[in-house]
Amino acid sequence: QRQLVESGGGLVQPGGSLRLSCAASGFTFNGVTIGWFRQAPGKAREEISCIGDSGTITYADSVKGRFTISRGNANNMVYLQMNSLKQEDTAVYYCAADWRLGRMCAIDMNRWGFGTLVTVSS
């Protein structure tokens, strides 16, 4: 069974850093579109960063220059390095995968993790 599990969330002060991890089981990320999304209380889920199946990487304007998405060497891990965190980054962060060829990230990804909570507060 294909599953995604996020980890690495927690409480951090403004200006701090966190590294989120997403582990795949039952499949690898080879040839798969992978994305990080987040959902803040009372807001819609939004795309943060994406690695397309061709390797194209995109970032939301709100995190560009602060967040970095990367793959692990074993091809079953994806990371989101988050630096210079702001209070408005507080949200549940989800990773998601899509096996449909030629797609970038979208809200209708094939598989979602359960999320990990990031709270930025002093």
Short description:
This protein is mostly beta strands. It has strands at residues 3-7, 10-12, 18-25, 33-39, 46-51, 57-59, 67-71, 77-82, 91-98, 111-112, 116-120.
Could you please describe the fold and organization of this structure?
The protein contains no helices and eleven strands. The protein is an all-beta fold and 122 residues long. The strands form two sheets. Strands 2, 4, 5, 6, 9, 10 and 11 form a seven-stranded mixed β-sheet that branches. A four-stranded antiparallel β-sheet has the order 1-3-8-7, with no helix packed on it. The model has no long low-confidence stretch (mean pLDDT 95).
Architecture blueprint of SSEs:
Layout: E1 3-7, E2 10-12, E3 18-25, E4 33-39, E5 46-51, E6 57-59, E7 67-71, E8 77-82, E9 91-98, E10 111-112, E11 116-120
Largest sheet: 7 strands, mixed
Tell me the radius of gyration. 13 Å
Instruction: Tell how many strands the DSSP assignment holds.
Output: 11
Distance between the termini: 40 Å
* Overall pLDDT score: 95
Key structural traits:
single chain, 122 residues, mainly beta, four-stranded antiparallel β-sheet, 11 strands, 48% strand
